[in-house]
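Q: My collaborator sent me two sequences in one message, no labels, and asked for predicted structures for both. Can we handle them in order? The first one she listed is below.
A: Yes, handling them in the order given. First sequence, followed by its structure tokens:
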Amino acid sequence: MFDCDLHTHSRFFHWKPEVAAGYDPYGVLATLRMAAFRGLDGIAVTNHDFYRPDTIVSDACLPGIEISTTRGHLLVVGPDPPTRTERGKLSPQAAVELAHAHDCAAIIAHPFRNSTLRTCDADFDAIEVNGKHPEYRRRIETIARERDLPMVGGSDAHLPFEAGRISTRIDVDRLTPETVAAAIRDGRVEPVFRDGPLLRALGTVYSYIHEIKGHTSSHED
């Protein structure tokens, strides 16, 4: 059994992948240290629309990418994620098919932030409870039951101190990209929730920011 944060980023900025690329491995190392401090065994590095092998700095890192589809963000985790996708070009089903063609699991990311993936009929493998929006946990549990999808957890960390706010317990004997992708598809995963003043404050701040930006859904489905 392993505990991993399945949604982290190597950078706090949204520039093109090739801009300041030298920072990325150091960003991952800092995130790994925070994850280990919080008792995690590993992290998935899921940068926006790109994957580079140099961001996988240790065996505790899982390859991934966060694809910006036409309907929202899709986490892709596994041994061979796509190296680059064009933001807002792939349909949800096309993104899922791409993930599966690369032997990866396809996960609905932050389903109530700037996303309608939860209403799509694509062949998703799991749905995420996002560390920036733990208040949606009950609604995501309902969707997971209705769609028979496993639930995973990810912090969506862009800064190292955010890592591990929510993570995923994975029922595998060895932590490898292949075993993790298979466990997600098989439902041998569950989210792990952490509490504390800092983590609660972060959730409140991010919820306010995304609501002001109009990225969150306040209505009931």
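Q: And the one she listed second?
A: Here it is, processed independently of the first:
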Amino acid sequence: MAVQRELLSRTARNAVRGELTGLAKAAIAEYWENEHFAPDPNFTPGEGSVRKQTFDSYATAVDWTDADHVARALRVFETLLRRVDRDSRRDGGGIPTDSLADLREAFARDGVRLDDDLRLHTARVAHLVVRTDMLTKPSGIQAELERVRRFGADYPDDAIGAAKQLIEATAKVVLLERGLPVDERLDLPALVKQAQHALHLHPTSAPPTASGAAPDNAESIKRILGALTSAAIGVAELRNRYGTGHGRLTAPTGLGPRHARFAVGTAATWCELMLDTLVDPDAPWRRANAAATSAGGATST
């Protein structure tokens, strides 16, 4: 069985650890716990000051191969570094230039950028493994959308890849939640259409407009749904040409933050409509189910 590679190296972690000399032990523990980490109960102290031992006790409890753990740990590191810098500036200093250079180099090796405000930005968005078994609640995909929104503009090709990935994950979650089979052989256009049909959100799913019909049956809504279907499929086509995930020999050129925001915004609109409809008690798919159940009951009596 292959060993999973750590998403953030020991080199980067130790670079942060080395900057904690002037920070109180309680502050270090507080910042870890603010991100819902706890110290490893089996931690065995090694070399280093009490501050570094405190840091190590939490760091050893992190699963560095897990994208969510690493995202939260990076927020801890960001807070720690900003606190160290702020405290140092009271003495007229700040984190030394050489130390900042070392930190930036260490993070850069792992695809993480440390900016001038000591904020950490990761380029790993598109490399998230979307596990549908872990995303059977809408909040899971919504959290991933927030990550893409936060980091995508810095890495447009990654953002486009992640946008496509989130559309695919959302479609699969919808099918699973509706108790329908997920065919892994389907391409994204077929998957998008199948998921929309499952929620009666495909323009061909809604019944003809009638007087007093629900808004979901209106022709204007059908036209929007048709355009949204095309937009979601367009994100996949954009990813195939420009996004990450195809082992290109050369990096795509010409992409900028506006392309990232456009792709992510399109994915977000589609995903949020699907998730909102999935949990809406008055959604059209629920009304259709209720009508079918009622008709079935009437027939059997």
